[in-house]
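Lab channel / #folding
Pinned by the channel admin:
"Please post every new chain as: sequence first, then the structure tokens as a reply. Keep commentary short and put observations after the output so the thread stays searchable."

First post following the new format, from NK:
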Amino acid sequence: MTDYSLTKTRFVEGVWEGIVTTESADAPPPQVAVSHLDRPLRGVVVAEGGGANVWVLRVPVPPETIGDGTHTFLIHDERNGAALGSFTIVAGEAVGDDIRAEMELLRAELDLLKRAFRRHCLETS
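Reply from TO:
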């Protein structure tokens, strides 16, 4: 269990950013580690966030960790190993197949609804 909570703020130009907060008044700055495929990421930065017990977390995503498929990055507290959160990047051909399949399903459902609506209109007129 951890006293820290993590909220994503944005993902821009290859850097995932979030806000780490705690309600504990005397909490030290968090020691955050991020891993991908059980390997730690370098360059993770925790900086003061402009308020008491607020820190900004910046995670640069290395280009070598991005490729076809789904990639999950785990964010945890180094002191006790508790999970703070995670983020996922989905890219490549797998995304195209998923989107095409999802669109096909949506079209089929829309056609089903149109037929049901037309049948309903005919039966009630």
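NK: The domain at 4-91 is CATH 2.60.40.1130 (Immunoglobulin-like).
TO: also worth noting, Residues 14 and 61 are 5 Å apart (CA to CA).
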